[in-house]
């Protein structure tokens, strides 16, 4: 025993104070995984409802409006997802306990000569993350404002399956590129359970709410010249889709040429987006089809602005 | 001369031992000398068989008329090596006979034996095979000298396992014309080694006699009969007081012709020590230059001529032994010089101050030391049984060296040092893999038990190891290197092929590293497979 003690002591001492750890990289992943990616923000419309359906001559206007709004929203979120994928392969240039910086790096293939810098921070409880992309024509700066930024509230089950918003500073992008501005686009999302997305620009708002049965519900409001005249009408749409893609949209228009009243329009469409029934009070299109064939028999009106 | 020795000598003479009287120029002498300290499983290894062979080889080359190219030796080898060495000699013997030379073939063996075979480690060379070897040599005279033994403590015992009459067996099987057999013992007797002389009694007195101590008629030539007479008398005398009792060398022959067989010619010696005709006493001669016991010379009474002892040029100590003390003298003998002991200045010393005895004791201690070998090692180490280990420690290639001790009783111990390196990657969901490079050092101590088999050996043991690893990140220069210092304990096993002095081992080590990695609490395991190639000293 007396002889064994020094040996055991020596062996124990050899193990003191050193080990391997992947903690810095796990922390990197924790940050990166808090950025919303395509997996969270992609929206697959029910059934066969795609932008191809809108190429048909008898496609439903409301169905196509839904498809285009979702494509626009998903297209914007995919920019964020692509940038996120880029920084997954990059080592942070700066690591702090609750922040990371990536870049500058000329990572954007279709923007040669443009350098990107990404900064993220998180709350000490790791419940809230905020991030921002900046651009520059030089790796040394000066850096633009936060052209793309966002916040993310971590999901309880999975960090990325949370809620948050993405802010696109289109005016900032325009300033950077020397082109005309485009305002600010905000995409809010909540993917903790059923996907909810909202696209909010200076002139329109669009929301998508996935339903438990596989269908979905769309609201759209915008101000534009719907029936011709000197002023835009305020247009509000509520569209409902079944899991197969069939749907019904009920819209209200007021203001502008409507003369202060509220006019309505309704449409139903088949799973491939083909119009099956239309009626409106605008004199916009001739009534057609049979309401009795609609997937939703009763109208559901949007809340008018 | 003892009565038995005289009797055999007379028989030999009466039988008309046939051979040219001297080692003439037209006689070509070939020799195959074999020694193996190891015997079959269960026998205690000998200490001095290899040393016996070296001494025998020395005297045959110096004085026996054997050219080095005609004298083959197999030390520590087995049957296959012996037969191969003989196969190399035989064409030379055939060529010599074809050229008209008369050929003598000497086979010498020191090691274990029983009634059926010479025991060469775990293998054996049967007497039938030995007989065929002698027969097929085609030599005019075949001389077999067998010093077959097992061992004891200070005085070890050869052939300790009871066996039929050794000489009888040999005589029965090798009794062909032109064959002489000289063995170290007779019947079921034991043969013995001794720390005091650093060898077996039989070979010691045989070599001593061949250097001149056996030159009874003082004609400058040591014949077979003189050598046997000397080795018989001295061996019996010196072993009569041992625990195992007297050992009686034996002699068998089947020769026809005239004259005696000259084994060594002292006229060819490069230097000589002369004992004057009037000198009496018991003398021992030690080679101080080479730290070797040269010969013992017993001079019972004044004789008609001087006694010459052949030596290699160098420094010597001559001891005259008395019951209570020694008288010693030192001499430097140059090449071509003959020095008379009467011209030396003797001084008295106590037995405990005997320098030569110290050498021999040291030689005996050294002979008991474990075999030492040095090995080059290549290894591959992989993590075991832990996700964290898989993540942090990629397969590691290693190169290093090992120092190994192996006792004759099948115990072994080793220390080793290896440099290791490997490449891996950090795999974390959400980010691309981050390359890692590991380098470090493993050093360990292990000990265990093994089989005694020398050619094929297997063993197992325990291992304690210190592991140092440094982990760097080639694609991320700003990231500090990480270090892991860890002990490891576990088991080791090996199988080895050990032809001659070379060693080739395949080892597997299973180690537990009680150091947690990240959130794992119990540490991890390592499996290391290694190949090693080494040389045993």
Per-chain topology:
The complex is a heterodimer of chains A (305) and B (537).
Chain A lengths: L3 H11 L8 H10 L5 H4 L19 H28 L5 E3 L2 E7 L9 E8 L5 E9 L11 E6 L9 E7 H8 L6 E7 L5 E5 L3 E7 L5 E9 L8 E9 L5 E8 L7 E8 L5 E6 L7 E2 L16
Antiparallel strand pairs in A: 1-2, 2-3, 3-4, 4-5, 5-6, 6-7, 7-8, 8-9, 9-10, 10-11, 11-12, 12-13, 13-14, 14-15
Chain B lengths: L2 H12 L12 E10 L12 H15 L7 E5 L3 H20 L3 E12 L3 E4 L2 E4 H10 L4 E8 L6 E4 L7 H9 L4 E5 L7 E4 L4 E2 H13 L7 E3 H16 L10 E5 L7 E4 L5 E5 L5 E7 L4 E8 L7 E5 L2 E8 L4 E8 L4 E3 L6 E3 L5 H14 L2 E14 L2 H6 L3 E11 L4 E16 L7 E17 L5 E17 L9 E16 L4 E12 L10 E13 L1
Parallel strand pairs in B: 1-2, 1-3, 3-6, 6-8, 14-20
Antiparallel strand pairs in B: 3-4, 4-5, 7-9, 8-12, 9-10, 11-13, 14-17, 15-16, 15-18, 18-19, 19-21, 22-23, 22-29, 23-24, 24-25, 25-26, 26-27, 27-28, 28-29
Helix pairs in contact in B: 1-7, 2-6, 4-5, 6-7
Number of helices of chain B: 9
Summarize the largest interface: chains and residue counts.
A-B, 24 and 31 residues
Binned strand content of chain A: 25-35%
Number of strands of chain A: 15
Round the Cα radius of gyration of chain B to an integer and report it: 30 Å
Low-pLDDT segments of chain B: 1-25, 150-177
Here the CATH topology of the largest domain in chain B equals: Rossmann fold
Cross-sheet strand order for the largest sheet of chain A: 1-2-3-4-5-6-7-8-9-10-11-12-13-14-15
Largest sheet of chain A: 15 strands, antiparallel
Overall tally of structural domains of chain A? 2
Q: Fraction of residues of chain A in helices? A: 10-25%
Instruction: Let me know the average pLDDT of chain A.
Output: 84
Biggest pleated sheet of chain B = 8 strands, mixed
* Cα radius of gyration of chain A in angstroms: 26 Å
Q: Strand percentage of chain B, roughly?
A: 35-45%
Rounded mean pLDDT score of chain B: 80
Which residues of chain A sit in consecutive blocks of at least 5 with pLDDT less than 50? Answer: none
Order of helices and strands of chain A: HHHHEEEEEEHEEEEEEEEE
Q: Please state the structural category of chain A.
A: alpha+beta
- Total beta strands of chain B: 29
- Give me the secondary-structure category of chain B: alpha+beta
